Amino acid sequence: MSFSAKSGALLSSRAARWWWRRQPGPAWSYVGGSWSRPILDMSYSRHFLDFQGSSIPSSMKKLVVTKLSQNFREAVTLQQDAPVPLPGDGDLLVRNRFVGINASDINYSAGRYDASVKPPFDIGFEGVGDVVALGLSASADYTVGQAVAYVKAGSFAEYTVVPARHAVPLPSVKPEFLTLMVSGATAYLSLKELGNLSEGKKVLVTAAAGGTGQFAVQLAKKAKCHVIGTCSSDEKGGFLKSIGCDRTINYKTENVESVLRKDYPEGVDVVYESVGGKMFDLALNSLAIKGRLIVIGFITGYQNPTGLQPIKAELLPAKLLKKSASVRGFFLNHYLSEYEMALKHLLEMYERGDLVCEVDFGDMSPEGKFTGLESVFRAVDYMYMGKNIGKIVVELPHSVNSKL
User: Fold this and answer.
1) pLDDT tens digit sequence for 317-367
2) DSSP 6-23
3) From edge to edge, which strands make up the β-sheet containing 268-273?
4) N or C: which end of the chain has fewer CB within 10 A?
5) Over the range 119-135, which residues count as b (16 or more CB within 10 Å of their CB) and which as e?
């Protein structure tokens, strides 16, 4: 559904529909190699459309899953001329400025979350941008030009329609806010609901320098815990120390199992685990009496056809029984009733300067910074090479032909 074909639907009252029908049809213009539509500069329409002399293009770029596969490059196609979607009465049209990369993007492209969904379908979980158009009901809480963040499938696009009730108003468009939407909220809610953290507890965070690991480290420290973080380089270890990690373990140069056995002979009380496979087995073996292992992912398995990495599951019941320990899974979608509270708290912490939100734009990657939807493919590769420190974010620059 294109923006131009249904633009009258933005003004949903009877009077608004009458007003719209009486307006002369705006002329289209051909600018910079594509057709653009001017937005009428009328006092009533200014609440719903961009009125500052710019235009919303008729087409845009977006990424679409055209084949189910855990190989992101095989599964996903960049569409150059997709129609810009139309916001309904309660929706916002957001021009994305920054989009987040998640390990589970390849689970989504493989169709693992909903077997009934068939290609083609949109991809990308989260974005930050500006409101450029909105429906009548949505205008009660939002205005054109407002900065917002959101979690919704379809963020790997230049424009995304977002239900106003799912948007988060922001003071400005900053990539740091994007780090909190999925990665930060996952750490906050999983540790709050399942971690039972208290002063002096020993907390092991695997992939601690990653997008969500960085928050698990900081939140555990704020609970006055002793935090151990695994990572794959000395540079990452330095970052972890800078955010308060008490003991870093570079698994490329140290034996994680030996270090834990030697330095923590009584085990660790909580594990925040996102790696899977051998790391899961090692973490399980390192639990203290009544220890808790929280599974928020298993990235080492996602690139496999099954999405899984083998573990020693046959020994799991005996190991848990022996220590009165537990393994709990955490999936953010099951805690949406607590999400708003968590995000509010995280945003407040960041704005007070109490929380580091590390962003990795891929500046140190071979081809440089992740800019434009074309670079999403490189950004996913970068994540699975284990190169990132913090949350991987792709910037979507302004169109040179648009004032939006």
Assistant:
1) 999 999 999 999 999 999 999 999 999 999 999 999 999 999 999 999 999
2) TGGGGS-SHHHHHHHHTS
3) 247-250, 226-231, 202-205, 268-273, 287-295, 326-329
4) N
5) eebbbbbbbbbbbbbbb
Look at residues 97, 153, 90, 46 and name the one whose alpha carbon lies nearest to residue 398.
97
3-state secondary structure 69-116: CCCHHHHEEEEEEEECCCCCCCEEEEEEEEEECCCCHHHHHCCCCCCC
pTM above 0.70, yes or no: yes
Tell me the residue type at 58. Answer: S
Partner residues linked to 95 by β-bridges = 130, 159
In the block, tokens 């500046």 appear at 363
Residue type, 89: D
Residue 107 phi/psi, 5° resolution? Answer: -65, -40
What are the tens digits of pLDDT across the range 285-307?
Answer: 999 999 999 999 999 999 999 99
Under DSSP, the state recorded for 193 is I
Say if CB 85 and CB 160 are below 8 A apart.
yes
Residue type, 227: V
The token pair at 232 is 């794959």
Among 212, 248, 252, which Cα is nearest to 230's? 248
Angle at alpha carbon of residue 399, lines to 104 and 28, rounded to 5° = 120
Coil, helix or strand at residue 123? coil
**In angstroms, rounded to a whole number, what is the distance separating the alpha carbons of residues 386 and 384?**
5
**H or E stretch covering 179:** helix 175-179
Give pLDDT, residue 193: 98
Tokens of 95: 């021009």
